[in-house]
Amino acid sequence: MTDLLLPADFFGFQTLLSDDEQKELLALREFLESEIKPHVNASWAAAEFPHDLIPKFAEADIVGRSYDWEGRPRASRLYTGFQAMELSRVDPSMATFLGVHNGLAMGSIMILGSEEQRQRWIPSMMRMETIGAFGLTEPEGGSDVARGMRTTARRDGDSWVLNGAKRWIGNGTFADVVVVFARDEADDQVKTFVVEKGTPGFQASKIEDKFALRTVQNADLTFTDCRIPAGNKLEDGNTFKDVNKVLKVTRGGVAWSGVGCQLGAYEVAVAYAKERHQFGKPIGSFQLIQDLLARMLGNVTASLGMTVRLSQLQETDDLRDDQAALAKSYVTARGRETVGWARELFGGNGIVLENDVIRYFADAEALYSYEGTREMNTLIVGRSITGFSAFV
After folding, report:
1. Per-residue b/e over 266-289, b at no fewer than 16 CB within 10 Å?
2. Which UniProt keywords apply (predicted)?
3. 3-state secondary structure at position 112
4. What CATH number labels 7-126?
């Protein structure tokens, strides 16, 4: 099925998928091109979320493919990686929306929840009737949130009472359920809770003037004596090590999104190089332009190769934290280079949204920073290399 390969898949990694998976991937690609792409720039420019597209995503049956569920076995890790790539190739914002809902929120409930809790929330989340968010980062705690978490939880009879604040919470302004991490006052351990929309004491406000992933509705969340049922504490979410069980899986998804962002920028750059004429010929015929494109393709290919191997290790449950950290930091760093070269190729036209490349350029900055900065991930890798922890 090599005729279905994206031109940027220079080494044909897609052929590692089964024929059925490749057909499914092509159907997803066609859906994204026809149903989602026409709305991308308008939503990004307005910094508004296109809620009317949620039913279309539900119909496309792309949610929950990473999990075994009643009547539907999970897809391969390699396929769900390519799925994340395709989403980000068209729009990193919508890829992030789905990554938060499908990976972080649903993943927390699937990995840390009891069977009763999974039955309570997952079916409607699969249908996208219930949208999820993931509340970990705090106003004063990003990279240091594990030790510096200030949001607290106190058991009070049949309830838990939460106090504190979270920041940069994707989907936070409209999510129906938010997975929230808070430090238990009784034992000082980070525990995992589900807070439902409309709970007294819970408020969400949109973070304005954001210039990356603008379609994603990031929010400040506050909890003021927010009382939730005891049954809303996820059964197996009892320490920060449990949080890391979720993050190890989703960090790989961010790496795949980083590949997709590079792919999208590369593709629009190639198209522009062929159609833009200067000095009587297409600019793609100039040596310096071809050099930029070759460097971009090298980054895409190296990043794709790393994420393919990452998914293969996930499939056999052999993926280590340091391997996930290296993939996330490497791919998003190369992504910054790739989108920068793409914007350079467009010249002045590269800053106009209708040419798409400035959107990839801006969105790559968010992918570079969230779910573990490059610096934090390199410390994880550095500890693995040397045996010494350099964390402060």
Report:
1. bbbbbebbeeeeeeeeebbeeeeb
2. FAD, Flavoprotein, Oxidoreductase
3. helix
4. 1.10.540.10
Q: What is the CATH number of domain 240-385?
A: 1.20.140.10
Residue 292, token pair as written in the block: 């930029």
Q: pTM for this one?
A: 0.93
For position 365, what pLDDT does the model report?
Answer: 95
From residue 206, alpha-carbon distances to 171, 209, 361 in Å are 9, 10, 23
pLDDT at 218: 97
Q: How many residues does the chain have?
A: 392
Which residue in 206, 208, 202, 209 sits closest to 219, CA to CA?
206
Average pLDDT over residues 348-373: 94
- Which of these, 5, 3, 1, 2, lies nearest to 267 by C-alpha position? 5
Contacts of 157 (CB under 8 A, 6+ apart): 230
Determine the Cα angle at 309 with ends 11 and 332, to 5°.
85
pLDDT of residue 243: 87
How many other CB atoms sit within 10 Å of the CB of residue 47? 18
